[in-house]
Each structure stands twice: as structure tokens, then as C-alpha cells.
Amino acid sequence: MSEDQDKYIAEVVEKALRGDMDAINNIEDRVTRSKAKAALIKAKRLSKTAAAEAAPAEETAQTDTTLTEKSLNQKVAEALAKKFSGSIDSEDVNEYIQLNGKNWFEIAQYLKDNPDLLFDSLQCITGFDFGEGEALEVRYNLHSMTHYHAIEIRIKTDRNDPKVPSVEQVWRIGDWFERETYDMYGIVFEGHHNMTRILCPEDWEGWPLRKDYETQETYHGIIVPKVKEGWE
Amino acid sequence: MGVVHGDLMTLNIGPQHPSTHGVLRLKVKTDGEIVSEVEPYIGYLHRCFEKHCENVTYDQVIPYTDRCDYIASMNNNFGYAVAVEELMKIKVPERVEYIRVIVAELNRIASHLLALGTYGLDVGAFTPFLYMFRDRERILDIFEALCGARLLYNYIWVGGVSHDFPNEFVETVYSFLDYFEPKIKEYNELLTYNKIFIERTADVGVMPPEVAISYGVSGPNLRGSGVKWDIRKNETYSIYEKFDFDIPVGSGIMGTVGDCWDRYYVRMQEMVQSAKIVRQALKTIPAGNVHQALPKKIRPPKGFIYKRTESPRGDLAYYIVSDGSPIPFRLKMRSPAFTALSVLGEISQGWMMSDVIAILGSLDIVLGEIDR
User: Fold this and answer.
1) Which residues on A lie below 8 Å from B42 (Cβ)?
2) Contact B330/A at CB under 8 A
3) Which residues of A touch B235 (CB under 8 A)?
């Protein structure tokens, strides 16, 4: 009997663990029921410690994945350092690769064509402003449709004379993304065939997404209403 | 036969024109009836969404994301919420994940219905448009019962959703699915296999996969070119890995791989897959509290994130930089329709004037999202 009973208890405990407490509550025999409840408590305690043990294991698993990501970033950084010496600005390449804009067009071509990397898709170009009086930055998110991996490349540029080589010939979407970044930050992409505003009207004054942007007072004779400071 | 080059004529389409799906202006240079150059001019709906975001708190951004892609607001909310949650490392309750997947997939169906219906309208088929809008209306009614809004939901919040399902919601969705799934056959008979429709769209505006990738085209447009790429599968987020669904890709049944008909048909098949996901989710949705994980104050730690999700139009990504304050330091939205429109000039060269309209319609753009 006891073996059968043990089996039965194990079954209902498993059901209860999945949230079906009725499986235990419906047991008619009181002894069996209390045994099942005791087993449930025990199982819960066990699973808790197991979870606590599993948690650090998960953490190590996570660091493992970051390791592989790291190795991709590092691999790219090493390859670039070898082929284009002096193009990488920062030693730290864990999250992104900081370039200085030298040879950026050739580097982009290399990243796209190298069979180990094959970054054939330019996902996004993000302009970035560190704040008044500081540098501007362009951030490229690249992705490979073959290897399914992605990296981020950043290029800093001077605020007063922002210039970055254009990559529209490498990735065709670069055309519009670069125009958008130019429109919002005034960063000129050298070698772009049509460096004009894309979202704002042609005669718009200033670069809207810069942190020190000031709204123009009138636009085509229309007075621009002042917005109160602080929107909260 | 040699090509005769006469003088090029410049033709202006839009900004107010029914076939441009919003306020879009196309400058078309034609050689007789043959198009030699198309240049889209955008920005008529520009509101500088990103500048607004730098002035409001994280939760106040969500209504703005609604207004970017107003056809699929749920998916926009979803992408933003997922990005901020990953930045803050919030884990949302299981029930919330299910609710989000259900509403996002329903919204995908609604969005595709609009895309396909208006596409039929573009190429001259009026009736399917009415059929599809009739069915889209039912989804909008479902959403209205859910959160009170028909188009701009502000439903998916960071850490949760605004309301739990109302009473009998699950039954309503089931009855909608029971009604909707047989309708696919009806659409196919009405439009997909219509001789005139096939003549207008098959072999027209072929987009080879390498062109699509180079132009950053994504979503159904990319899959129409035969590339099997879906963020829901390839870079899975939320709980999409729990569901069983296929990624339909274009195979050139009626003409060449990557033609307008393929892009159209991928959307049609995707609706079936979305319905399948909704069914699975409804069957296994757990109980729980949807407000449990809502943070009191959204204040992500210093850092940045680039998070992609699959909206009905493709890879919708948010690049968020946080400086530790309750206001985003920088928020960039990578909109899939923006990249889809950029390819128009490339793939419509050499086609007839009327084909440009067919190609533009097949890309399924939403100007609110392009101009932001």
C-alpha cells in the first residue's frame, strides 16, 4: 500500500505545485491528506533552496553570454586595430566600440564584407549630444543577417565643426539616416550626395535635438509661442 | 528595340493625395509613361517626437508612441515598454505578458487588414476594402471594451498594462477569431486570386533580398523578398518563444520573389499566424494581478539600450539613453516605415506611373511613424 500511496502523494503534490490545490483538498482520507500536505511543504522548501541555488547558476550563465558578446566586440576591435591602426579611441570595448572617425568609410566597408563579420544591415544611426559645450556623437547599430550578431559603433565629433565620413555607399539606408541626423544635430556627413534636411523644412533654423537648441522667434512671419519651462 | 529618351517630365504627387496614405509628396520624373526617378519628400507630419521625449517623464512618453504609428499603437507601446523594462530590469507578471501578446497580435491583424484593404483600393478594388474594414472594426470594438480608446490606446505601460481584461473579454476574442479565420478564405477569393489584382501586382516592383537588407527594409516587406527574419523568432522578446507559429515568406507563387504580390500575400498569411498565436495565448493565460509590477517612479539606472521588437511594419527599435533621472536623456525611435519608404526610389525605377502607386501601397507605410 505504502508504495502506491507514496506515488499518489507525489502526484498530487506535483499538481498542487502547479497551482491546483484542490487535488490535495479533495483527498478523502485524512491521513493521506495530511501526509500530502506535509510532502507539499517539504517540496516547496526544497524547490526554494533549489531556486536559490539555481539563481547563481543563472548568473554565471548570463556572464557566459556576455562573454561571447564581449568576444565578438573584442574580435571586431582586434581586427580593426590590426587593419586600421589608430582608429579605435577607447580600450574599453565591452558594450560598444569607440572609433575616432578616421577611415570610417573603409572600416564600414570592411565590416560589411569580411566573411567573419558580414554586418550587412545598418539598423540605426542615432545622433547624440552630451550637453552644452560638449562633443556630439554618432552611434551606429550594425547587425548581420547571416551570423545574427550585432555591434554598436560610436564616433565622437567636434561640436563646432561636426564632420563624420558618410557610409551611404556602404549601406544604402545610410542616406536617409544620415540626413535625419544632419537635420537634428547638424552633423555633416562628408561624401553624402545630398546633405539636406529631411524632416524639418529647408529653411528651419538651428539643430532641434541639440541640448542648447533655442526655438526661433518667428517662422515665416508667425510668432512661435513660448513654451513654459518644465512640462511636469 | 532601343530605348527612346525624350525630355523628362516632372510630376508631383501629393502631399494631399489618397494613394500616398497620408501626407507624403513624391517628385516623379517620367519619360513618357515610364518612371525614371522617384524622390519622396517627407516631414509634413514632423512633430519632433524625440525632442518631446526629452522633456517628459518615461511614462508620459507612451501616449506619444501611440501617435507615431497610429495604425498599430499597441505594438508601439509594447516595444517601448519592453525597452524600458529591460533598461530597468523589471520582470513583469506572466499574465501581463500574455495580455500584451494577445493585444499586440490582434492589433497586428487590424493593421494588416487596413494595409491590405487600402492596397486593394490603390489598385482599383473597392469591395475588399469594405469587407476588411468591417472586420477591423470588430477588433477596434474589442480594444474599446478593453481600454476605452479605439486607436490611441496608451494601454501597455512600463511594468504592466493599464486595465485587466473586462468581463467576458476572452469569450469575445474567441468569438471574433471564430468569425475571422474563415474570412481569410473570403479575402483570398475576393482579392488575392483576382485576375486583375494579380496582373497589377505580380512581377511588379521586385525587391531583391540584398537590396532590401541594404536599405534596412524589415518586417513583411523583407519577408516578401524571401528572407526569413522575424524578431519574434530570431531575437525573441516577451513570451513569444512559448508559442508555435510560422514565419511566412514570399516565394514568388504568382511571379518573382519579392514582388508586390508577395509582400501582400505575406501579410495575408501573417494574419492567420497571429490568430493562431492569440488562440494559444487565450488557452493558457494565467490569473494574476496586472498592476503588481508597475513601478512607483520610473527612474532607470544610468545606461543605454537598443531594443528591437516586431511591429506590423517591421523592426521597431528604441534607443534609450538614461542619465538616472526620471526623464529620458535621449530617445530615438527607429521606425520601420522610414526605411521601407527609402527603398521606393530604387525599386520603382523603370515601371509605369500607375505601378508606382501599386509599389508604394505594397510597402504599407504610415506617415505618422516616418515623420515622427
Assistant:
1) 198-199
2) yes
3) 148
pLDDT category at A56 given cuts 50, 70, 90 is very low
Residues from chain B contacting residue A173 (CB–CB below 8 Å): 214-216, 339, 342
Would you place residue A2 in the very low, low, confident or very high pLDDT band (cuts 50, 70, 90)? Answer: low
Q: How many helices (H) and strands (E) does chain B have?
A: 16, 10
Residue B20 is given by DSSP the state G
pLDDT digits (tens, 9 = 90+) for A85-131: 777 777 777 778 888 877 888 888 888 888 878 888 888 898 888 88
Q: What is the DSSP letter of B242?
A: G
**Is B102 contained in some domain?**
yes
For the whole model, what pTM was predicted?
A: 0.80
Say if B47 falls within a structural domain: yes
CA distance linking residue B284 with residue A166, whole number of Å: 50
Mean of all residue pLDDT scores within chain A: 77
Please indicate whether, in this complex, the C-beta atoms of A173 and B215 are within 8 angstroms of each other: yes
Whether the upstream peptide bond of residue B15 has omega within 30° of 0, thus cis, is yes
pLDDT band at B4 (very low <50, low <70, confident <90, very high): low
Contacts A148 to B, Cβ<8 Å: 234-235
* Average pLDDT for B79-93: 89
Candidate from B46, B50, B213 with C-beta closest to A209: B50
- What pLDDT is stored for residue A144 in this prediction? 87
Residue A106 dihedral angles phi and psi, to the nearest 5° = -65, -40
C-alpha to C-alpha distances, A42 to A15, A17, A220, B372, nearest whole angstrom: 14, 11, 77, 56
**Interval A183-198 mean pLDDT:** 89
Query: Which structural domain range is residue B109 located in?
Result: 41-371
**What nine digits make up the cell of B170?**
476572452
Q: What is the pLDDT of residues B135-171, one digit of tens each?
A: 999 999 999 999 888 888 889 988 888 888 888 889 9
Residue B113 confidence class, pLDDT cut points 50, 70, 90: very high
Handedness of CA B66, B71, B76, B78 (dihedral sign): positive
**CA neighbours closer than 13 Å in the CB half-sphere of residue B272:** 13
Q: Quote the CA–CA distance of A69 and A48 in Å, as a whole number.
A: 31
CATH code for position B354: 1.10.645.10
Residue B208 lies in a domain: yes
Residue B353's closest CA among B204, B194, B197? B204
Is residue B3 included in any domain, yes or no?
Answer: no
Q: Number of Cβ pairs closer than 8 Å across A and B?
A: 80
DSSP for B335-355, written as a single string:
-HHHHHHHTHHHHTTTSBHHH
How many domains does chain B fold into? 1
Q: Is A173 in contact with B317 (Cβ distance < 8 A)?
A: no
Give dist(CA A226, CA B128) in Å, integer. 48
Query: What's phi and psi for A162, nearest 5 deg?
Result: -75, 120
